[in-house]
Specification:
- The chain is 82% helix and 0% strand.
- It is elongated, with a radius of gyration of 19 Å.
- The chain is mainly α.
Length: 180
């Protein structure tokens, strides 16, 4: 079986470990990004509701992302740290298949965060209108993503607008906050 041979090949495990380490670096950026979003919530959020949505939604998204990373690439850590472990191929396939299920609730939470922030910015005119409207669209795609969870290529493609919105927000938000 090719999968069993792949999992027993030390260079394959090395590649999986490297991917695991590199893919977890996204959380370094994400923590700072979400902390920054909390600080850029409109001054009209007197009740703190929007800040609460950002805090809870970001925490759920990051938790789902971490769980997803552990399921999708964490098997390499198990293989390297437990040399006497002989993986059952069906268990490995199950864990790798569950990554998309693990990240789905976090994606919904992230979509709620993006929609909430974008609607607040549109209401207050505190950020560029285009960023708010694109955020509403991107957030809606994130909320609906679990409906297509079994079509992995479409799920992966549907992440791209999210990454572009995050990049645009990371560039625009600091400049907008200075001009307020």
């Amino acid at each position: 079986d090719r999968l069993a041979a792949y999992l027993q090949d030390p260079s394959s495990v090395d590649q999986m470990l490297m991917f695991f380490a590199l893919s977890n670096l996204i959380f370094v950026f994400a923590i700072g990004f979400f902390a920054g979003l909390r600080s850029l919530v409109s001054p009209s959020d007197l009740s703190g509701w929007v800040r609460g949505v950002v805090t809870i939604g970001a925490a759920l998204f990051l938790s789902g992302g971490l769980l997803s990373e552990m399921m999708s690439t964490g098997i390499a850590v198990v293989l390297r740290t437990t040399p006497d472990y002989h993986p059952d191929i069906n268990t490995v396939l199950l864990l790798q298949g569950l990554w998309s299920t693990a990240i789905a609730p976090g994606q919904v939470a992230l979509g709620v965060v993006i929609i909430t922030l974008s609607a607040t910015w549109l209401r207050d005119h505190s950020m560029p209108g285009w960023l708010g409207w694109v955020g509403v669209l991107v957030g809606t795609v994130a909320v609906l993503r679990p409906a297509i969870i079994t079509n992995i290529p479409v799920v992966i493609v549907s992440f791209q607008p999210l990454f572009l919105w995050v990049a645009a927000a990371a560039i625009v938000l600091p400049h907008s906050s200075r001009t307020r």
